[in-house]
Specification:
Bound molecules: zinc ion
Strand content: 25-35%
Oligomer: single chain
Distance between the termini: 26 Å
Number of strands: 4
Order of helices and strands: EEEHEH
Shape: elongated
Length: about 130
């Protein structure tokens, strides 16, 4: 998981957040029910607005990010953007396990706990971004 964001002010004094974030997320293949790593990447070209009203006046080439107060919920923002890029139905390009007649494959060695691991937990190592 990587995050590369630049916080800046443009020539119009608009606070911007630009960059990208991504990584590999462990999901379950909906074809063979084995784990599959999904590459996710989100690009950011955001302008920070304190209210919806301000957001409407931002240049159209920015995506508005409404931030009330000075605290930006950066991790939440990154997480939400990445979730939006996730496939609705994840599957391998080429499943390694084939079922000849469509019967279910039961693999008791699969660690079901892995499903509960928050794939974004690594983001917690980054403290919430603070704007100047
Ligand atoms: Zn598969």
């Amino acid at each position: 998981m990587w995050i590369d964001l630049q916080f800046d002010r443009d020539e119009l004094k608009i606070r911007t957040v630009q960059g990208s974030a991504g990584g590999k997320l462990a999901m379950t293949c909906q074809r063979c029910l084995e784990p599959v790593e999904i590459d996710v990447e989100a690009k950011f070209n955001l302008a920070i607005a304190p209210t919806e009203e301000h957001a409407k006046n931002l240049p159209k080439y920015y995506d508005p990010l409404i931030v009330e107060g000075d605290e930006l919920e950066l991790l939440t923002m990154v997480e939400e953007e990445l979730i939006l890029t996730l496939p609705i139905v994840p599957y391998h390009d080429d499943c390694s396990i084939q079922t000849s007649f469509g019967e279910e494959v039961t693999d008791t060695s699969t660690d079901t706990d892995s499903d509960k691991t928050n794939p974004f937990s690594v983001l917690a190592t980054l403290k919430g971004g603070k704007l100047d």
